[in-house]
Amino acid sequence: MDQPFLTIAHAGNHEIDIKKSKFIANIARISTEAEAINFIQKVKTDHKKATHNCFAYVLSETDQVQRESDNGEPSGTAGIPILEVIKKNQLHNVAIVVTRYFGGIKLGAGGLIRAYSGSAAQVIEAVGIVQRVTHEVFKITVDYKNYDQLNYFLTTHDFQIMDVDYQAMVTVTTSVAASALDQFQTDLQNLLAGNVQFKSEGTQFVERLVPNSQE
């Protein structure tokens, strides 16, 4: 995924009780369908005595893979509500399993939908959401007379200075979002009248926490 996308900050779980039924939501990042299946199976193994282990997951930047299961609950009352919560939050590469221990009181179709969607929404809120951006890491080399201009440009535009190497010339290591790289290089070329060298050092992912809309 070269374009920025939203996912969860980390794996986690959250538990709620509704009319004596216990709902335990487990959430995890996934990057392949095999990882999703393994995660679901682990939750099922951990909760062998549960009444239901319902799940949903989405994969890839455009969510080409979407799976859900009611696992014995009435059709459309568990898996789809979980999936819809994932999609509503615009999350990618995420799997949620909601485990239910039946407490003896039937909730009805509407009650089940609210319980499973609420459980999924609350576990997402508990772990947090991040924007994951692909950054290009590279070295920028300039002579000493242009270093102050380079440093000012980077700091005023909030680019992270990862390293500075003072040799015959000054080499600064930084990173920039892949989608903004061409404009970034053009701006520096113009600023320094072409007296700048770039060397790619590969890519890395940068994650920024998305504030909770309720905060």
Automatic annotation (TrEMBL):
One of its GO terms (biological process) is regulation of translational initiation. InterPro entries: EFG_III/V, Impact, Impact_N, Impact_N_sf, Impact_YigZ-like, Ribosomal_Su5_D2-typ_SF, UPF0029_Impact_C, UPF0029_Impact_CS. It comes from the Bacteria. Residues 140-194 form the UPF0029 domain. GO terms for cellular component: cytoplasm. It holds the Pfam family DUF1949. PROSITE patterns: UPF0029. Residues 19-124 form the Impact N-terminal domain. Belongs to the IMPACT family. This is YigZ family protein.
